[in-house]
Amino acid sequence: MKITALAGGIGGSRFLLGARAALPDAEITVIGNTGDDITLHGLRICPDLDTVMYTLGGGISTERGWGRHAETFTVADELAAYGVGPAWFGLGDRDLATHLVRTQMLAAGYSLTDVTAALCQRWKPGLRLLPMSDDRVETHVVIETDEGRRAVHFQEWWLRMRAATPAREIISVGAEKARPAPGVLDALANADLVLLPPSNPVVSIGSILAVPGLRDALIGTPAPVVGVSPIISGAPVRGMADACLRAISVATTAGAVGAHYGGRGHGAAAGGAGAGAGAGGGILDGWLVDTADTGTEVPGVTVKARPLLMTDVEATVEIVRAALELAGV
Ligand code: FO1
């Protein structure tokens, strides 16, 4: 079975651990968000790609959910001693090696796809990890300040401001010129199942959908498309997705996020045989919500309620199985 999943960072990675465990023989392709990417100290950093790679490769810091296991921050401390920031982005010593290799390969002319494949040769995540695009797309956030409106990089808004300053607008800078990375459209067109893990619907899933061609590829795939709500009882399970949803005037509820993704209009999720592809204009056939949100309805989407907390891999395996059942595969 060929499964394609769109994924951001921590929530997406946890979900993928369950998908890989539930379907050890499946060919899983992950289309990873690169909108969080940032250049610091001359190094290109890809937080969501690295989080998927480290989590599935066994190198992740499980207490942080990002960065490396058994990490030290000696270089970061030395940079701080020189008064060189930003202090709000924790750069670990082991993690730095990943950024050095990536930056060196990009400078040598390799694409982000090639770099990601090379880094995954070490980590062996047990799935294919593709960047959404090899072109630079960065999420920036427009905020109001005393001096008027200005844009800050998503990471500064997320980490230094803790998303506490309201986002007037969230922009995928460069998206309009970006092309899907090699293999991305094919992975959506030829999947047996497309999954939307409980990643941030705006800055992770939304950023991926901002790449021209990707939304249409989801609308048009013959595979069933099933998503998992990242919102339970009106709150994000982790992170600050509510601050992102407010920026696009979407309520922080499982139903509102499901409606935001929209139904493909195939009605029953089973098979989603591409009949009237795009009839609903949205991208979902099925939507899993937590039992706390039982009764949620989304036009044109088959909604199913079941416990959604990914407390451990076994719990996540059950969620993946429920998604398979909802998809009718
Ligand atoms: N998240 C934090 O909360 N604090 C950090 O200092 C931090 C550093 C960091 C470094 C490398 C990396 O790959 C991820 C890092 N993250 C950090 C997570 C990152 O900001 C988020 O994973 C996403 O970009 C938002 O989902």
Summary?
By secondary structure, the protein is α/β, with parallel strands linked by helices.
Write up this protein.
The chain is α/β, with parallel strands linked by helices. It has one domain (1-329): Rossmann fold (3-Layer(aba) Sandwich), CATH 3.40.50.10680. 35% of the residues lie in helices and 19% in strands. It contains twelve helices and 14 strands. The chain has helices at 10-22, 47-57, 74-81, 93-107, 112-123, 154-160, 184-189, 205-209, 214-220, 241-247, 254-261, 313-327; strands at residues 2-7, 27-32, 38-40, 43-45, 128-131, 138-145, 148-153, 167-173, 193-196, 225-228, 231-232, 235-236, 286-289, 302-305. The strands form four sheets. A seven-stranded parallel β-sheet has the order 5-2-1-9-10-13-14, sandwiched between helices. Strand 1, helix 1 and strand 2 form a beta-alpha-beta unit. Helix 1 (10-22) runs parallel beside helix 2 (47-57) and helix 4 (93-107) packs across helix 5. The radius of gyration is 19 Å and the shape is globular. Mean pLDDT is 95; it is low at 267-278. The structure holds ligand FO1.
